[in-house]
Amino acid sequence: GQEVALFAKKHLPVAVKSSGAFKSKNYKQALIEGFQSVDKQLESAKGAKELFALYQASGRKDLGDIAPDAVGKMVGCTACVALVTKTEVYVANAGDSRAALCRKGKAVVMSKDHKPDVEEERKRIEKANGYIDGDRVNGMINLTRCLGDLEYKQDKKLRQEDQILSSVPDVRVEKLYNDADFLTVACDGIWGLSHLAGKPSTTFRTKIRPP
């Protein structure tokens, strides 16, 4: 949902940079903690209020007369983000958006899809008393990790990474050399185009070197 995406756009960079791991230059852990922090903020009263305001501002009516504290249970988003240093690029991904680094004109895959047909994802879901039906989690959601969708993260006995839907990203790291051309980060709809599937685009791209 766009509300969670906008919430994450505002709060995820702050959460990453304010973590102790970031300050100690453990950027992989900082990204993981940042994702977890966003979900915790969504669960808070303050976060729920902000999310409800975003829902009202969107003009959407599909959730009906929803309670202000229930939006976070009903909407969520994928997140695929990059943290670039002078020597490395880190990509944290939760969901089915993708990233690829172009190195000497060849794609280096920087993420993997979190889908119900992935064995390790299915095992986690079933262990958390969820199920897969028609390639969807509990018959509803067609991915297995995301921000938001808190309805699937309600078991207080489980860690965030063990819930039916997990907010914990996979993080991949690549060294940056002069042969790194650009990084592509895009949603599944872009990668789903047949001529882009599995390879970086020269149309949607960001220069890899930090300023």
UniProtKB/TrEMBL annotation:
Localisation: Membrane
Catalytic activity: O-phospho-L-threonyl-[protein] + H2O = L-threonyl-[protein] + phosphate; O-phospho-L-seryl-[protein] + H2O = L-seryl-[protein] + phosphate
Top EC class, one word: hydrolase
Keyword annotations: Hydrolase, Magnesium, Manganese, Membrane, Metal-binding, Protein phosphatase
GO cellular component: membrane
Main localization, broad class: membrane
Domain of life: Eukaryota
Every PPM-type phosphatase domain range: 1-211
Molecular function per GO: metal ion binding; protein serine/threonine phosphatase activity
InterPro entries found in the cross-reference section: PP2C, PPM-type-like_dom_sf, PPM-type_phosphatase-like_dom
EC identifiers of the protein: 3.1.3.16
Cofactor: Mn(2+); Mg(2+)
Pfam family, one: PP2C
Annotated SUPFAM superfamilies: PP2C-like (SSF81606)
Family: Belongs to the PP2C family.
Protein's UniProt name: protein-serine/threonine phosphatase
Organism: Nyctotherus ovalis (Ciliate protozoan)
